[in-house]
Each structure stands twice: as C-alpha cells, then as structure tokens.
Amino acid sequence: MLAKKNVRLGMMRHLYIVVDFSESMSEPDLKPTRLICTLKMLELFVEEFFDQNPISNVGVISTCNKRAQKLCELAGNAGKVVEALQSSKTQVPSGEPSLQNSLELAAEVLRHLPVHTSREVLVIMGSLTTCDPGNILTTIETMRKCNIRCSVVGLAAEVHVCCKLTKTTGGVYNVILDENHFKDILFQHAIPPPVTGNAESSLIRMGFPFHRTETEGKPSLCFCHLDSQNPSDGLSKGGYFCPQCNGKYCCLPVECKVCGLTLVSAPHLARSYHHLFALEAFEEVPRDSLPAETPVICFSCQLSISDKHVYRCVKCKEDFCLECDLFIHDSLHTCPGCASRLPPPEAPS
C-alpha cells in the first residue's frame, strides 16, 4: 500500500493495544486458538511498528472477566513489549471483555501526553459483546475530546458499538477473513495515521547521545535497569550517554529519566522521514512496447527483465523489475536512480 504525499502525519506515536482475553478467544477458527494466533501476530506487528516508527511507544492492555489491566506500560523498546506478549500465552481466556474499562484505562495515560504526539488505541476484539459498568457512549465522547484515535480489528463479526467508536474518533474498523487477512489488516496500523485538523505543532528537543564501548571508562549502572531484581543487570562500561545530564542507557530511543530529554540516533529520524515524503509509484510499461532488439536491464539488480511489464520511475526514467520495485517501495523507500543523480555543480561566484 503506497503512502500518500503532502499529508500531515503523527510521527511520535503513543499506541495502546487492547487484546481481548475473554472466553470467545478460545475458539479454534484461528489456529491453534484466536488468542494464541493474535499474540503471535502482535509479536510480528510490534517489530514492524518500531521499524516503521522508531521514536514511538507501545503499551498492551488485556481485558477479560469484565475488567481491564495493563500487561505492559508504554515503552519504546520492542523487546519489552514482545516479552509481555509472550508471557501472556499461558493465560486462559475467560469471562467477558469490557471495552469501556479498557478505553478508560488507556485514556488515563494518553490524555496527559503532549499535544504534538499521536494518541492511539488499537482494539483486537474476538467477542461480540462487551460488559461495561456505565454508559460506553460517554467514554467514546471522552476519547474524541482527548483526540485519541481508536481503531478496531474484529475477529468474528461487525459490532455496532465498535463502529460507533471508530467513526466518532476517526479510527478504522476491519473484520478479518482469515490469518493472512488478519496480518495484512494489522500491519496497516504500522503506518502513521494523518493527524486531526485541530492538532497542535511544536518544536521538540531531542538529544543525540554519545556511545562508549566496553573498553572505555569505568563500570556503571544504566537507568534502564534501576528497577531490576538482579543487581548485575545493566552494570557495564559501555552504553549511550545523555548529552545533557550524562545519564547512561542500554538502547535507543528512550526518554531520559533524569532530564526528560528524548534520546535518539540519526538513523531513527531517517527511518521516520520516508513517511512524510513517500516515493511515487513507478509507471507500468508493457515490455512489448520497448525495442525488441535491445535487452532491458533493471537499474537496481542489473539483470535482464523478461517479464511482461517494466516498472519505470516517473522522475529519473530508469527501468526496474517487479522484485526491485517491491523492495524499493516496501523497504528502501528511495529510488536508486534518483539517488544516483548528482546535482549539477554550482557556478563559481
């Protein structure tokens, strides 16, 4: 799916994933069960999400027995979220879900985030009912006022209250057909959504920490493992050091616990950049419309193109094969032909 250009996107995303752990998730229509399949899909989704949105945060909420609880707080580390999902595979689905309690639990955190961030909730719903303590329409209106975008992926059938939720908050509602469709629908949420018209903009202070290897400096404890039960966790010489307060961290991106500065690396910002300036789709040219006496060579892999169609960049007019076209638009996000064109030298003044 090609991204649209000239669309204002929320690059710093804060996403809570609400997972249905009710009795309906024990159904075997997704193998081996709905719950196990969902958790496996979410592990892949979290990795893809952080690959596409490296300066964002993800948290997980489970709902069953008419209650909701956090499995994982908002975190910028994919490993922490995946670990929480894996540890939940032994939980037995039971009772009914509570959509209202889940939304209110997510809103308690999201409503206090800065206005320039994208606040989102993604609900994975297998049940056709929700057991709530109050009027869920009031909660839906609260989500709208707090600019929290709610989307739902249904595993069974369409539910009216989910339609109401997504329509009111500007989210997306899909019902899956099978496992492959489930993965396709889920991965669409890895792409940053357009921000609302009333969202504010602001400059964000970010720091680029310097890195020390294990051969430099003295052993010290990182702030990532301050709460660890094992005293040896986080004790090392190497790490990333905050340029403002010199606090040490194991991995990036992270918000400094001492000074509050957002710590990132240049590649993190570069990987977020391509969403704002999406690569245009290549023009599909029939192979028989090109001169038959000269072979058509793919500019990227340098192999002869024998397919029925050739894919041509609309700017640099270089030709590509289908495999390279898919790789360029799905992973590279930059046309090799355009990137190889050097700008003309400036005339001497």
UniProtKB/TrEMBL annotation:
Record key words, sorted: DNA damage, DNA repair, Initiation factor, Metal-binding, Nucleus, Protein biosynthesis, Transcription, Transcription regulation, Zinc, Zinc-finger
Q: Does the keyword Cell division apply?
A: no
Q: Where are the zinc fingers (C4-type)?
A: 242-259
Concerning SMART domains, the annotation shows: C1_4, VWA
Name a single GO biological process.
regulation of transcription by RNA polymerase II
- The segment(s) forming the C2H2-type domain are 311-334
What region holds the VWFA domain? Answer: 14-155
Q: Which InterPro entries match?
A: C1-like_sf, Ssl1-like, TFIIH_C1-like_dom, TFIIH_SSL1/p44, VWF_A, vWFA_dom_sf, Znf_C2H2_type, Znf_RING/FYVE/PHD
- UniProt superkingdom: Eukaryota
Chief location of this protein within or outside the cell = nucleus
Q: Name one GO cellular component term.
A: transcription factor TFIIH core complex
> GO molecular-function annotation terms?
translation initiation factor activity; zinc ion binding
Give the family, as the similarity comment puts it.
Belongs to the GTF2H2 family.
Q: What is this protein called?
A: Transcription initiation factor TFIIH subunit 2
Q: Which organism is it from?
A: Rhipicephalus appendiculatus (Brown ear tick)
